[in-house]
Amino acid sequence: MALKIIENVSLTKYSTMRLGGFARFVANIKSRQDVVDAAAWAETRQLPLMMIGVGSNIVWGDKGYSGLIMINQIKGFKVFKEDDGNIYLTVGAGEVWDEVVKKAVKKGLSGIEALSLIPGTAGATPVQNVGAYGQDMSQILVSVEAYDRKHNTFVIIPKVDCQFSYRDSRFKSADKGRFLITGLTLHLKATHMKPPFYDSLQTYLDIHQIKQYDPATIRKAVIAVRSSRLPDPKKIANNGSFFANPIVDIPVFRSVISRYPGIPHWPQADGRVKLSAAWMVELAGFKGFDDPETGMSVWPNQPLVLVNKKAKTTRQLIEFKQKIIVKVRYMFGVTLEQEPELIGDL
Ligand SMILES: Cc1cc2nc3c(=O)[nH]c(=O)nc-3n(C[C@H](O)[C@H](O)[C@H](O)COP(=O)(O)OP(=O)(O)OC[C@H]3O[C@@H](n4cnc5c(N)ncnc54)[C@H](O)[C@@H]3O)c2cc1C
Protein backbone atom coordinates (compact mmCIF):
# COMPACT_ATOMS: atom_id res chain seq x y z
CA MET A 1 0.00 0.00 0.00
CA ALA A 2 1.54 3.32 -1.14
CA LEU A 3 -0.63 5.29 1.27
CA LYS A 4 1.30 6.92 4.13
CA ILE A 5 -0.48 7.17 7.49
CA ILE A 6 0.93 9.78 9.85
CA GLU A 7 0.33 9.54 13.59
CA ASN A 8 -0.48 12.24 16.17
CA VAL A 9 -0.79 15.33 14.02
CA SER A 10 -1.84 18.75 15.33
CA LEU A 11 -5.18 19.71 13.82
CA THR A 12 -4.43 23.44 13.97
CA LYS A 13 -3.16 23.37 10.38
CA TYR A 14 -6.36 21.64 9.24
CA SER A 15 -8.70 24.43 10.30
CA THR A 16 -8.47 28.01 9.10
CA MET A 17 -9.36 29.01 12.71
CA ARG A 18 -6.05 27.31 13.69
CA LEU A 19 -7.36 25.75 16.89
CA GLY A 20 -7.92 22.20 18.09
CA GLY A 21 -6.20 19.14 19.50
CA PHE A 22 -4.48 16.27 17.71
CA ALA A 23 -5.64 13.77 15.12
CA ARG A 24 -4.67 10.21 15.97
CA PHE A 25 -4.03 9.52 12.28
CA VAL A 26 -3.85 11.64 9.11
CA ALA A 27 -3.41 10.57 5.46
CA ASN A 28 -2.90 12.71 2.37
CA ILE A 29 -5.23 11.33 -0.29
CA LYS A 30 -3.91 11.79 -3.83
CA SER A 31 -5.83 9.15 -5.80
CA ARG A 32 -9.00 7.07 -5.81
CA GLN A 33 -6.90 4.06 -4.80
CA ASP A 34 -5.73 6.03 -1.72
CA VAL A 35 -9.41 6.47 -0.80
CA VAL A 36 -10.05 2.72 -1.00
CA ASP A 37 -6.87 1.91 0.96
CA ALA A 38 -7.51 4.51 3.68
CA ALA A 39 -11.13 3.43 4.15
CA ALA A 40 -10.07 -0.25 4.42
CA TRP A 41 -7.22 0.66 6.81
CA ALA A 42 -9.59 2.49 9.16
CA GLU A 43 -12.26 -0.21 8.92
CA THR A 44 -9.81 -2.97 9.81
CA ARG A 45 -8.89 -1.04 12.95
CA GLN A 46 -12.51 -0.02 13.63
CA LEU A 47 -11.54 3.64 13.63
CA PRO A 48 -13.82 6.54 12.69
CA LEU A 49 -12.73 8.38 9.56
CA MET A 50 -13.59 11.55 7.74
CA MET A 51 -12.53 13.32 4.56
CA ILE A 52 -11.72 17.01 4.67
CA GLY A 53 -10.35 19.76 2.42
CA VAL A 54 -8.53 22.62 4.16
CA GLY A 55 -10.81 23.05 7.18
CA SER A 56 -12.23 26.44 6.21
CA ASN A 57 -15.58 25.29 7.60
CA ILE A 58 -14.29 23.20 10.52
CA VAL A 59 -13.55 23.94 14.18
CA TRP A 60 -11.75 21.06 15.90
CA GLY A 61 -12.37 20.36 19.57
CA ASP A 62 -9.41 20.58 21.95
CA LYS A 63 -9.58 16.81 22.58
CA GLY A 64 -8.87 16.23 18.89
CA TYR A 65 -10.03 13.35 16.67
CA SER A 66 -9.52 9.73 17.63
CA GLY A 67 -9.68 8.27 14.10
CA LEU A 68 -8.25 8.85 10.61
CA ILE A 69 -8.51 12.22 8.85
CA MET A 70 -8.24 11.94 5.07
CA ILE A 71 -6.93 15.15 3.48
CA ASN A 72 -8.28 15.33 -0.05
CA GLN A 73 -5.57 16.23 -2.56
CA ILE A 74 -6.99 14.52 -5.65
CA LYS A 75 -6.21 16.78 -8.62
CA GLY A 76 -7.75 17.16 -12.07
CA PHE A 77 -9.38 19.73 -14.36
CA LYS A 78 -10.62 18.61 -17.74
CA VAL A 79 -13.11 19.98 -20.26
CA PHE A 80 -14.65 16.85 -21.79
CA LYS A 81 -17.56 18.14 -23.85
CA GLU A 82 -18.44 21.41 -25.57
CA ASP A 83 -21.58 21.96 -27.57
CA ASP A 84 -23.40 25.10 -28.54
CA GLY A 85 -22.32 27.24 -25.60
CA ASN A 86 -22.57 24.43 -23.04
CA ILE A 87 -19.28 23.28 -21.55
CA TYR A 88 -18.86 20.26 -19.31
CA LEU A 89 -15.83 19.72 -17.12
CA THR A 90 -14.57 17.27 -14.51
CA VAL A 91 -12.69 18.50 -11.48
CA GLY A 92 -10.69 16.57 -8.87
CA ALA A 93 -12.11 17.02 -5.37
CA GLY A 94 -8.74 18.11 -3.97
CA GLU A 95 -8.34 21.06 -6.35
CA VAL A 96 -8.26 24.45 -4.63
CA TRP A 97 -11.72 25.80 -5.43
CA ASP A 98 -10.59 29.29 -6.37
CA GLU A 99 -8.06 27.82 -8.82
CA VAL A 100 -10.93 25.97 -10.50
CA VAL A 101 -12.86 29.25 -10.77
CA LYS A 102 -9.78 31.03 -12.10
CA LYS A 103 -9.17 28.41 -14.81
CA ALA A 104 -12.84 28.35 -15.85
CA VAL A 105 -12.98 32.15 -16.03
CA LYS A 106 -9.78 32.19 -18.09
CA LYS A 107 -11.60 30.00 -20.61
CA GLY A 108 -14.46 32.53 -20.63
CA LEU A 109 -16.86 30.13 -18.90
CA SER A 110 -19.74 31.40 -16.79
CA GLY A 111 -21.49 29.75 -13.84
CA ILE A 112 -18.96 29.95 -11.00
CA GLU A 113 -17.36 33.40 -11.41
CA ALA A 114 -19.43 34.79 -8.46
CA LEU A 115 -18.02 31.97 -6.31
CA SER A 116 -14.52 33.48 -6.64
CA LEU A 117 -12.26 33.57 -3.57
CA ILE A 118 -14.33 31.14 -1.48
CA PRO A 119 -11.69 29.23 0.48
CA GLY A 120 -11.45 25.44 0.42
CA THR A 121 -11.43 22.54 -2.00
CA ALA A 122 -13.69 21.67 -4.92
CA GLY A 123 -14.83 18.48 -3.17
CA ALA A 124 -16.30 20.39 -0.23
CA THR A 125 -18.45 22.68 -2.39
CA PRO A 126 -21.43 20.29 -2.78
CA VAL A 127 -21.37 19.48 0.97
CA GLN A 128 -22.95 22.77 1.99
CA ASN A 129 -24.07 23.77 -1.51
CA VAL A 130 -21.55 26.61 -1.44
CA GLY A 131 -22.94 29.88 -2.71
CA ALA A 132 -22.33 33.61 -3.02
CA TYR A 133 -23.71 36.58 -4.96
CA GLY A 134 -26.53 34.65 -6.57
CA GLN A 135 -24.63 31.56 -7.73
CA ASP A 136 -24.45 28.22 -5.94
CA MET A 137 -23.34 24.68 -6.66
CA SER A 138 -26.86 23.37 -7.20
CA GLN A 139 -27.08 25.54 -10.34
CA ILE A 140 -24.05 24.12 -12.16
CA LEU A 141 -23.34 20.69 -10.71
CA VAL A 142 -24.07 17.73 -12.99
CA SER A 143 -22.91 14.97 -10.64
CA VAL A 144 -20.62 14.06 -7.77
CA GLU A 145 -18.21 11.13 -7.90
CA ALA A 146 -17.73 9.57 -4.47
CA TYR A 147 -16.66 6.47 -2.60
CA ASP A 148 -19.76 5.10 -0.88
CA ARG A 149 -18.72 3.70 2.50
CA LYS A 150 -22.03 1.89 2.87
CA HIS A 151 -21.38 -0.34 -0.14
CA ASN A 152 -17.58 0.09 -0.42
CA THR A 153 -17.74 1.17 -4.04
CA PHE A 154 -17.42 4.29 -6.20
CA VAL A 155 -20.70 5.88 -7.25
CA ILE A 156 -21.83 8.76 -9.46
CA ILE A 157 -24.52 10.81 -7.74
CA PRO A 158 -26.54 13.03 -10.11
CA LYS A 159 -27.58 16.48 -8.92
CA VAL A 160 -31.21 15.44 -8.38
CA ASP A 161 -30.04 12.96 -5.75
CA CYS A 162 -27.86 15.45 -3.84
CA GLN A 163 -30.84 16.92 -1.90
CA PHE A 164 -29.58 20.46 -2.28
CA SER A 165 -31.16 23.33 -0.36
CA TYR A 166 -29.84 26.60 1.05
CA ARG A 167 -26.28 25.77 2.30
CA ASP A 168 -27.27 22.14 2.70
CA SER A 169 -27.18 18.74 0.96
CA ARG A 170 -27.45 15.05 1.82
CA PHE A 171 -23.64 15.07 2.32
CA LYS A 172 -24.08 17.44 5.26
CA SER A 173 -27.38 16.07 6.59
CA ALA A 174 -29.04 12.70 5.85
CA ASP A 175 -25.88 10.93 4.61
CA LYS A 176 -23.22 12.78 6.56
CA GLY A 177 -19.93 10.88 6.47
CA ARG A 178 -21.17 8.21 4.05
CA PHE A 179 -19.71 9.59 0.80
CA LEU A 180 -16.04 10.46 0.31
CA ILE A 181 -16.18 12.88 -2.62
CA THR A 182 -13.45 12.35 -5.22
CA GLY A 183 -14.61 14.44 -8.18
CA LEU A 184 -17.24 16.75 -9.63
CA THR A 185 -18.76 17.22 -13.07
CA LEU A 186 -19.83 20.81 -13.77
CA HIS A 187 -21.92 22.37 -16.51
CA LEU A 188 -20.77 25.89 -17.39
CA LYS A 189 -21.92 28.21 -20.14
CA ALA A 190 -20.54 30.67 -22.63
CA THR A 191 -23.31 33.19 -21.78
CA HIS A 192 -22.77 35.90 -19.14
CA MET A 193 -24.46 36.74 -15.82
CA LYS A 194 -27.15 39.39 -16.00
CA PRO A 195 -28.05 42.29 -13.66
CA PRO A 196 -29.44 43.02 -11.14
CA PHE A 197 -26.66 41.60 -8.97
CA TYR A 198 -26.58 41.22 -5.20
CA ASP A 199 -26.50 44.58 -3.37
CA SER A 200 -22.81 44.86 -2.53
CA LEU A 201 -21.71 43.57 -5.96
CA GLN A 202 -24.17 45.86 -7.78
CA THR A 203 -22.94 48.85 -5.73
CA TYR A 204 -19.35 48.04 -6.69
CA LEU A 205 -20.28 47.73 -10.39
CA ASP A 206 -22.24 51.01 -10.23
CA ILE A 207 -19.45 52.93 -8.48
CA HIS A 208 -16.92 51.72 -11.05
CA GLN A 209 -19.39 52.24 -13.92
CA ILE A 210 -18.94 48.66 -15.04
CA LYS A 211 -21.51 47.56 -17.60
CA GLN A 212 -19.77 44.45 -18.96
CA TYR A 213 -20.61 41.25 -17.17
CA ASP A 214 -18.20 38.76 -18.69
CA PRO A 215 -16.84 36.17 -16.22
CA ALA A 216 -13.44 37.88 -15.86
CA THR A 217 -15.03 41.24 -14.98
CA ILE A 218 -17.41 39.68 -12.45
CA ARG A 219 -14.59 37.65 -10.88
CA LYS A 220 -12.48 40.78 -10.48
CA ALA A 221 -15.41 42.66 -8.90
CA VAL A 222 -16.28 39.79 -6.53
CA ILE A 223 -12.65 39.52 -5.43
CA ALA A 224 -12.54 43.28 -4.76
CA VAL A 225 -15.80 43.22 -2.75
CA ARG A 226 -14.85 40.11 -0.75
CA SER A 227 -11.33 41.37 -0.03
CA SER A 228 -12.69 44.64 1.36
CA ARG A 229 -15.06 42.83 3.75
CA LEU A 230 -13.48 39.50 4.71
CA PRO A 231 -10.10 38.65 6.23
CA ASP A 232 -7.82 36.36 4.19
CA PRO A 233 -7.71 33.06 6.15
CA LYS A 234 -4.11 32.51 4.99
CA LYS A 235 -3.08 35.59 7.00
CA ILE A 236 -5.77 35.92 9.69
CA ALA A 237 -7.26 32.87 11.41
CA ASN A 238 -11.01 32.72 10.83
CA ASN A 239 -13.82 30.49 9.50
CA GLY A 240 -15.74 33.10 7.49
CA SER A 241 -19.27 33.75 8.77
CA PHE A 242 -19.44 32.18 12.21
CA PHE A 243 -23.20 32.66 12.65
CA ALA A 244 -26.04 31.82 10.28
CA ASN A 245 -28.88 34.29 9.69
CA PRO A 246 -31.66 33.02 12.00
CA ILE A 247 -35.06 32.18 10.52
CA VAL A 248 -37.80 32.97 13.06
CA ASP A 249 -41.56 32.48 13.41
CA ILE A 250 -43.92 35.44 12.93
CA PRO A 251 -44.53 36.17 16.68
CA VAL A 252 -40.75 36.41 17.27
CA PHE A 253 -40.36 38.55 14.15
CA ARG A 254 -43.14 40.93 15.32
CA SER A 255 -41.53 41.28 18.73
CA VAL A 256 -38.09 42.03 17.17
CA ILE A 257 -39.34 44.48 14.51
CA SER A 258 -41.45 46.43 17.02
CA ARG A 259 -38.32 47.13 19.05
CA TYR A 260 -35.79 47.31 16.18
CA PRO A 261 -37.64 48.59 13.07
CA GLY A 262 -34.38 48.96 11.11
CA ILE A 263 -33.34 45.30 11.22
CA PRO A 264 -32.78 43.88 7.70
CA HIS A 265 -35.10 40.90 7.16
CA TRP A 266 -36.22 38.61 4.34
CA PRO A 267 -39.61 36.83 4.27
CA GLN A 268 -39.26 33.08 3.55
CA ALA A 269 -41.48 30.87 1.38
CA ASP A 270 -42.71 28.97 4.48
CA GLY A 271 -44.06 32.16 6.12
CA ARG A 272 -41.15 32.59 8.52
CA VAL A 273 -38.69 35.50 8.37
CA LYS A 274 -34.90 35.50 8.05
CA LEU A 275 -33.13 38.13 10.18
CA SER A 276 -29.71 39.68 9.67
CA ALA A 277 -27.33 38.13 12.21
CA ALA A 278 -24.64 40.69 11.29
CA TRP A 279 -26.96 43.58 12.18
CA MET A 280 -27.78 42.03 15.57
CA VAL A 281 -24.13 41.29 16.43
CA GLU A 282 -23.18 44.85 15.46
CA LEU A 283 -25.97 46.41 17.53
CA ALA A 284 -24.98 44.20 20.45
CA GLY A 285 -21.68 46.09 20.35
CA PHE A 286 -19.35 43.36 19.10
CA LYS A 287 -18.26 44.74 15.69
CA GLY A 288 -14.47 45.12 15.89
CA PHE A 289 -14.51 44.02 19.54
CA ASP A 290 -11.25 42.56 20.96
CA ASP A 291 -11.80 40.22 23.89
CA PRO A 292 -8.71 40.10 26.13
CA GLU A 293 -10.17 37.21 28.17
CA THR A 294 -10.34 34.77 25.26
CA GLY A 295 -7.94 36.24 22.67
CA MET A 296 -10.78 36.32 20.13
CA SER A 297 -12.10 39.30 18.12
CA VAL A 298 -14.88 40.26 15.75
CA TRP A 299 -13.71 41.47 12.32
CA PRO A 300 -14.31 45.25 12.01
CA ASN A 301 -15.62 45.05 8.41
CA GLN A 302 -17.94 42.06 8.89
CA PRO A 303 -19.46 41.37 12.32
CA LEU A 304 -20.24 37.74 11.49
CA VAL A 305 -16.55 36.87 11.22
CA LEU A 306 -14.86 35.80 14.45
CA VAL A 307 -11.10 36.13 14.29
CA ASN A 308 -8.60 34.17 16.34
CA LYS A 309 -5.99 36.73 17.34
CA LYS A 310 -4.46 35.11 20.41
CA ALA A 311 -6.71 32.24 21.48
CA LYS A 312 -4.93 28.98 22.26
CA THR A 313 -7.91 26.68 22.68
CA THR A 314 -11.26 25.99 21.06
CA ARG A 315 -12.77 26.36 24.54
CA GLN A 316 -11.77 30.07 24.41
CA LEU A 317 -13.43 30.44 21.01
CA ILE A 318 -16.61 28.84 22.33
CA GLU A 319 -16.54 31.07 25.43
CA PHE A 320 -16.34 34.10 23.15
CA LYS A 321 -19.10 32.81 20.91
CA GLN A 322 -21.30 32.35 24.01
CA LYS A 323 -20.75 35.97 25.05
CA ILE A 324 -22.15 37.08 21.69
CA ILE A 325 -25.02 34.59 21.77
CA VAL A 326 -26.06 35.59 25.30
CA LYS A 327 -26.05 39.33 24.55
CA VAL A 328 -27.95 38.91 21.26
CA ARG A 329 -30.50 36.64 22.94
CA TYR A 330 -30.94 39.18 25.76
CA MET A 331 -31.50 42.07 23.33
CA PHE A 332 -33.47 40.36 20.54
CA GLY A 333 -34.85 37.14 22.06
CA VAL A 334 -33.18 35.21 19.19
CA THR A 335 -30.53 32.49 19.55
CA LEU A 336 -27.76 32.57 16.95
CA GLU A 337 -26.53 29.27 15.53
CA GLN A 338 -22.91 28.47 14.69
CA GLU A 339 -22.13 27.93 10.97
CA PRO A 340 -18.77 26.10 10.92
CA GLU A 341 -18.93 22.50 12.06
CA LEU A 342 -17.51 21.75 15.54
CA ILE A 343 -15.88 18.31 15.42
CA GLY A 344 -14.80 16.47 18.58
CA ASP A 345 -15.04 17.37 22.25
CA LEU A 346 -13.80 20.57 23.88
C1 LIG B 1 -13.11 33.74 4.77
C2 LIG B 1 -14.14 32.69 4.43
C3 LIG B 1 -15.17 33.01 3.55
C4 LIG B 1 -16.14 32.04 3.21
N1 LIG B 1 -17.12 32.38 2.34
C5 LIG B 1 -18.07 31.49 1.99
C6 LIG B 1 -19.10 31.84 1.07
O1 LIG B 1 -19.16 32.94 0.55
N2 LIG B 1 -20.03 30.89 0.76
C7 LIG B 1 -20.00 29.63 1.31
O2 LIG B 1 -20.87 28.82 0.98
N3 LIG B 1 -19.02 29.27 2.17
C8 LIG B 1 -18.06 30.17 2.53
N4 LIG B 1 -17.08 29.82 3.41
C9 LIG B 1 -17.06 28.45 4.01
C10 LIG B 1 -16.07 27.46 3.33
O3 LIG B 1 -15.16 28.14 2.52
C11 LIG B 1 -16.82 26.43 2.48
O4 LIG B 1 -17.69 25.68 3.29
C12 LIG B 1 -15.83 25.47 1.77
O5 LIG B 1 -16.53 24.74 0.80
C13 LIG B 1 -15.12 24.50 2.72
O6 LIG B 1 -14.10 23.88 1.99
P1 LIG B 1 -12.97 23.03 2.71
O7 LIG B 1 -12.20 22.29 1.67
O8 LIG B 1 -12.16 23.90 3.62
O9 LIG B 1 -13.85 22.00 3.56
P2 LIG B 1 -13.61 21.55 5.09
O10 LIG B 1 -13.81 22.73 5.98
O11 LIG B 1 -12.30 20.84 5.15
O12 LIG B 1 -14.79 20.53 5.28
C14 LIG B 1 -16.11 20.99 5.45
C15 LIG B 1 -17.08 19.79 5.54
O13 LIG B 1 -17.11 19.14 4.27
C16 LIG B 1 -16.68 17.78 4.40
N5 LIG B 1 -15.83 17.49 3.23
C17 LIG B 1 -14.83 18.24 2.75
N6 LIG B 1 -14.30 17.66 1.66
C18 LIG B 1 -14.97 16.50 1.47
C19 LIG B 1 -14.88 15.44 0.52
N7 LIG B 1 -13.99 15.47 -0.49
N8 LIG B 1 -15.74 14.39 0.63
C20 LIG B 1 -16.66 14.35 1.62
N9 LIG B 1 -16.79 15.31 2.56
C21 LIG B 1 -15.96 16.38 2.47
C22 LIG B 1 -15.89 17.71 5.70
O14 LIG B 1 -15.92 16.41 6.25
C23 LIG B 1 -16.63 18.72 6.55
O15 LIG B 1 -17.79 18.11 7.08
C24 LIG B 1 -16.07 30.75 3.77
C25 LIG B 1 -15.02 30.43 4.67
C26 LIG B 1 -14.06 31.39 4.99
C27 LIG B 1 -12.94 31.03 5.91
Describe it.
- This protein is α+β, with helices and mostly antiparallel strands.
- The protein has three domains: 5-72, Uridine Diphospho-n-acetylenolpyruvylglucosamine Reductase, domain 2 (2-Layer Sandwich), CATH 3.30.43; 77-229, 2-Layer Sandwich (Uridine Diphospho-n-acetylenolpyruvylglucosamine Reductase, domain 3); 237-343, UDP-N-acetylenolpyruvoylglucosamine reductase, C-terminal domain (Uridine Diphospho-n-acetylenolpyruvylglucosamine Reductase, domain 1).
- Helix content is 25%, strand content 28%.
- It has helices at 32-44, 97-106, 137-140, 199-207, 215-229, 250-259, 277-283, 314-332, and strands at residues 5-10, 22-29, 49-52, 58-60, 65-72, 77-83, 86-92, 131-132, 135-136, 141-148, 153-158, 179-189, 237-241, 247-248, 265-267, 273-275, 290-291, 296-298, 305-308, 341-343.
- The protein has a five-stranded antiparallel β-sheet with strand order 6-7-12-10-11. A four-stranded mixed β-sheet has the order 1-2-5-3, covered by helices on one side.
- A hairpin with a 5-residue loop joins strand 15 (265-267) and strand 16.
- It is globular, with a radius of gyration of 21 Å.
- The mean pLDDT is 97.
- It binds flavin-adenine dinucleotide.
- Flavin-adenine dinucleotide (FAD) is lined by residues 16, 50-58, 72, 93, 118-121, 123-125, 127-128, 130-132, 171, 179-181, 230, 233, 238-240, 341.
